[in-house]
Write a structure and sequence with these properties.
By secondary structure, the chain is mainly α. It is 55% helix and 0% strand. The protein is built from 4 helices and no strands. The chain is elongated, with a radius of gyration of 17 Å.
């Protein structure tokens, strides 16, 4: 739902269907940058322009965002207590 609102606001449309193509609705790289900034704010996920080109619909971007959130949750912490320090 948040993603739909972001698309609608940036594209200045009352509603955007989850399978409607961002670029076919009038989106372009500058608007994609605005969407990316709002996605970063709302979900804590950074998307590059390539993500929009590969996933230009709400549905596809939602799957990409979900994938990145899950990947971040499973990434091992850099503060791993089992690691041994080696002096170089």
């Amino acid at each position: 739902a948040k993603l739909s609102v972001i698309f609608s606001q940036v594209l200045r449309r009352e509603q955007v269907g989850i399978e409607e193509n961002f670029f076919r609705l009038g989106g372009h790289s500058l608007l994609a940058a605005q969407v990316a900034a709002r996605i970063r704010e709302a979900f804590g996920v950074s998307l590059e322009l390539r993500a929009f080109l590969e996933s230009p619909t709400i549905g596809a971007l939602a799957r990409e965002i979900e994938f990145r959130i899950k990947a971040a949750d499973t990434t091992p912490s850099t503060r791993d207590t089992d690691r041994e320090e080696i002096e170089l």
